[in-house]
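Technical note accompanying the year-one report. For the benefit of new consortium partners, we illustrate the data format agreed upon in the data management plan: each record pairs a sequence with a structure-token string. No post-processing was applied to the example shown here.
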Amino acid sequence: MNLNELNIREAHQGLKSKDFSAEELLDSCLGAVKEKDGELNSMITVCDESAREQAKKVDNKIAQGDDIAPLAGIPCAVKDLFNTKGVKSTCASPILKDFVPPYDATAIERLRAEDMVMIGKSNLDEFACGASTEHSCFGVTKNPFDMERVAGGSSGGSAAALAAGMCTYSLGTDTGGSIRQPASFCGVYGMKVTYGRVSRSGVTSMASSWDTIGSFGRSPEDIAYVLQAMAGKDLRDSTMPDVAVPDYMSFIGKDVKGMKIGLPKEYFGKGVEKETADIVRAEVLKLEKAGCEIVEVELPTTKYAVAVYYVTMPAELSANLERFDGVRYGAKPDKVEDLVEYYYEARGRGFGDEVKRRIMVGTYVLSAGYYDAYYKKAQKVRTLIINDFKRVFEEVDALIAPVSPFTAWKIGEFGDDPMKEYMADALTIPSSAAGLAALACPAGLSSGGLPIGLQIITPQFEEGRCLQLAGVLGA
């Protein structure tokens, strides 16, 4: 196996036993970037020099006999939504294409404390607005399994980079499915954590009451290692409850006998491709053989989740993007007559079409006379979705369902109908609305050779239970 195909545990053991150096591990990943990314377009910025400096520091620690952290020297790609001190953080938007932040996001700060090696910043839908990584000012990220298809989004660059061997793990954000869906499309693991489990400080906000910070990996262990490093209270994020962080590795390999697993009938019905549903159901049989009880459950408010999301999310997005006005960021317009024209010019050139579409929807639903009719009503329905999950989790320990109703679509296929792209998140949005933990796991390949993923959904702060079940599914 090539070094760039190792998982975190294998890479860590190899470094500790001196089978290879951190520089050699980095070179293997950078070699894949050089060989593949010209076509794949998963990376926006590649940090060759700083990554090599980080790798050398880890090699020096090993040479001196120092103990190293599990993530020390392990190459990581970071979604270009995270602030990274001294490295461009563009959000794949023209308005931020030259922005270099003066500080690290908390998640990056904590990983640097573990001696992470950041190979670079990965591509995404502009300001995380999209489900395909087609809406980036740096171009489309392609799917490693089929270059004519999307990698998913908005964290498509991170998923594609990992699947193509350009890193050992990667970081993303999940608002309505933006980690789980690209993980499914690219055949890797991807964790959406409980809302408030990992600090959002220093990560550009899309929808503040929905955004979560997570990772992609090649195994449940990979997810556990990274989550262990990032999770926990941060005073710079006021939305985080002070909930103790468990030992996530202790859940790997833990017996699942006696657990009760629910299959939501709404996630296997109309709109879900039969092949996708069949492959997920076949994987669930592994849990039954391991001693789990499988039952069908109902989540009737699921059908309203997409509507709730595309009312509340654009509202929060429009408020969050208000600060990007061309004064502090972006190209400054020439020869304008007044401040209003200045804003029109700066934001007109600084934002892409999908971002503009969502800003207009969000501003509309928050405007006088429409707030109660749309935003307030959507929040009430969101509460019904939350209560639906609470009721079901009184009966079962976890839910399992497909991640996406269908496999990755062809690039440009949904270009004239954004609603089709929005519906790609129909199965991931409900658990996001309730702030739950969810882990996307590879389930198999379609008849056309495209990855299909399933998701394990658990109550808030039960990420360990996701990992426990994933260990059986991956066996």
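Partners are asked to follow this layout when depositing records. The chain has one domain: 1-298+398-475.
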